[in-house]
Write a structure and sequence with these properties.
The protein is mainly α. The chain is built from 13 helices and no strands. The radius of gyration is 20 Å and the shape is elongated. It starts with a helix and ends with a helix.
Length: about 240
C-alpha cells in the first residue's frame, strides 16, 4: 500500500545535518539542492496521501529543520504541511514566518488558510515569543496574519477557559471593521464573536447584533451536523449544547 511505502522509506532516510544554513532568496523560494532524503519523500507524497500519513511521517522524523526547509521549497501543499510539523520551533523566527506567509499566497485560498492554521497550531502557539507575534498582527498588512490574530483570539474562548481581559476592545474592533475586511479575516472575526457570545453572557446580545447587522453567512447552507456561521444561529445552537 502507498501509506506503508511512504513510512517505510522515511524510516531509512538519512537527513541533512542539523544546523546546515538555509537561505531564502528575495523571490521567496528557497535556493538549495535537495538532499536524497527530501527527494525520496517528495516522490512518495501524492494526491492520494492523507493528512494522517503526513502526521505519521512527522512522528518518525520528529524535528529536522533543514529537511523542513527543503520540503517547503518544493512549493506543494502536502510537503509544506509536513515541513511545518518537523520545523525546529527555536528557529521559527519573525523573518522566517514572514517568508512562509508570503509563500502561502502562491496557494489557493483554502490551502493557504490551512497552512497558516497548521503553522499556528503546531509552531506559533508553542512559545511565548511567537504568541506575542500573533498578538501583534491585528493590523498586519498580511490578511493571513490578521486572520491568525483573530482565530487565535477565538480559540482562547473556544476552550471555555477564563477569557482574556481584551474582550470589549475586540468587540469594538469587530463592530468597526468586520464588514470591510478580507473574507478570510471576516470568518475569523466572526468566529471570535461567536465564541465570546457563547461563553460570556454579558456580551451575548452584542455579538448577536453583529450578525444581525452584517448579515454575514445568513442563509448559507451547511452540511448535516454542522453549525451555521450566522452569529444569531451559531450562538443559540452552541450555547444550547452547553447549557449556557
Amino acid at each position: 500500500m502507498r501509506e506503508w511505502s511512504i513510512e517505510e522509506n522515511v524510516l531509512n532516510l538519512k537527513y541533512p545535518l542539523a544546523g546546515e544554513p538555509i537561505h531564502l532568496s528575495t523571490n521567496h523560494k528557497i535556493a538549495m539542492k535537495l538532499s536524497s532524503s527530501a527527494t525520496t519523500i517528495l516522490e512518495q507524497i501524492t494526491a492520494n496521501t492523507k493528512l494522517g500519513d503526513i502526521r505519521n511521517i512527522a512522528k518518525r522524523i520528529k524535528t529536522d529543520h533543514g529537511l523542513a526547509m527543503e520540503l517547503w521549497s518544493a512549493g506543494k501543499f502536502l510537503p509544506r504541511m509536513l515541513a511545518i510539523l518537523i520545523m525546529d520551533n527555536k528557529l521559527v523566527s519573525k523573518e522566517l514566518i514572514n517568508d512562509l506567509d508570503k509563500d502561502m499566497y502562491t496557494h489557493p485560498v483554502d490551502e493557504r488558510n490551512q497552512l497558516m492554521d497548521w503553522l499556528m497550531a503546531n509552531q506559533l502557539t508553542k512559545n511565548k515569543k511567537t504568541i506575542a507575534l500573533i498578538e501583534s498582527w491585528e493590523n498586519s498588512k498580511s490578511a493571513l496574519q490578521r486572520r491568525t490574530f483573530w482565530y487565535y483570539q477565538g480559540r482562547l474562548r473556544w476552550t471555555g477557559q477564563t477569557p482574556p481581559a481584551n474582550t470589549p476592545a475586540l468587540l469594538t474592533q469587530i463592530e468597526a471593521n468586520i464588514a470591510k475586511e478580507d473574507p478570510a479575516v471576516q470568518w475569523a472575526m466572526n468566529f471570535t464573536a461567536g465564541w465570546i457570545g457563547i461563553y460570556d453572557k454579558q456580551y451575548r446580545a452584542r455579538c448577536i447584533a453583529i450578525g444581525e447587522t452584517t448579515k454575514l453567512y445568513k442563509g448559507d447552507k451547511v452540511s448535516k451536523g454542522c453549525t451555521p456561521n450566522y452569529l444569531p444561529e451559531f450562538i443559540a445552537i452552541e450555547s444550547g449544547k452547553r447549557g449556557l
